[in-house]
Each structure stands twice: as structure tokens, then as C-alpha cells.
């Protein structure tokens, strides 16, 4: 068999493996978020206190932050900016290496 076909088959297997890894990470992330929400609801119900929290939705390179108090929003904003910067650096490095 010619070399290009072997290369394409190998890349295809790697692509399938990466897809499965990505899918598993998304499923694990949703599961962790669900478990965290249930545990927080149970703790609030048991203690009778108020729940504090927030979330981040990343649309492209722009994080949209929301929360129940200033402290939660501040922490999430710092984390989302750090994550966005990390992703932009990773993108720039991958473009430099592969493109």
C-alpha cells in the first residue's frame, strides 16, 4: 500500500480516539456539574442557609459570567479570563506547530 493511505488511516484512528476522549470529557464535566448542584441543594436544604454560586458560558473567546453574589462572580471572572488566555496560547502554539 502507498505511504499516504497508511498515513490517512493512522490519522483517522487518532481522530476517532481524540473524538472519544473529547466526548468523555464533556460527559464527565456534565456529570460533575450535576453532582455539585445536587450536593449544594442538599446542603442548603439541610442547613437552611442561602446558596451562593455562579456560572460561566464561553461563547467563542468571550466568557459570559453570572452569579448570585459579587465574590462568586469575581472568582469566576478571574478563572474564565485565565482559561481564555490559556486557550488562546494553546491555539497559537498549535497553529505554529501544525500550520
Q: What does this protein structure show overall?
A:
The protein has 99 residues and is of the alpha+beta class. It has 2 domains: 1-51; 52-99. Helix content is 75%, strand content 12%. The protein has 2 helices and 2 strands; from the N terminus they run H-E-E-H. The protein has a two-stranded antiparallel sheet. The chain is flat, with a radius of gyration of 20 Å. 0% of the residues are buried. The model has no long low-confidence stretch (mean pLDDT 83).
Write the layout of secondary structure elements.
Blueprint: H1 3-47, E1 54-59, E2 62-67, H2 70-98
Structure summarized in a few sentences:
With 99 residues, the protein is of the alpha+beta class.
Number of β-strand runs: 2
Report low-confidence residues grouped into runs of 5 or more. none
Helix-strand category = alpha+beta
| Spatial order of strands in the largest sheet | 1-2
Structurally, how many domains make up the residues?
A: 2
The termini sit apart by: 27 Å
Number of H- or I-type helical stretches: 2
Kindly estimate the percentage of residues that lie in beta strands according to DSSP: 5-15%
Question: How do the helices and strands follow one another from N- to C-terminus?
Answer: HEEH
Helix content: over 70%
Strand count, sense and closure of the main sheet?
2 strands, antiparallel
Radius of gyration: 20 Å
Mean pLDDT metric: 83
Shape: flat
Amino acid at each position: 500500500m502507498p505511504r499516504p493511505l497508511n498515513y490517512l488511516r493512522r490519522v483517522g484512528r487518532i481522530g476517532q480516539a481524540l473524538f472519544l476522549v473529547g466526548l468523555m470529557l464533556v460527559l464527565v464535566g456534565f456529570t460533575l456539574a450535576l453532582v455539585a448542584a445536587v450536593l449544594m441543594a442538599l446542603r442548603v436544604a439541610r442547613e437552611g442557609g442561602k446558596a451562593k454560586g455562579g456560572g460561566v458560558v464561553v461563547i467563542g473567546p468571550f466568557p459570559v459570567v453570572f452569579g448570585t453574589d459579587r465574590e462568586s462572580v469575581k472568582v469566576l471572572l478571574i478563572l474564565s479570563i485565565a482559561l481564555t488566555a490559556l486557550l488562546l496560547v494553546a491555539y497559537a502554539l498549535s497553529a505554529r506547530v501544525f500550520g
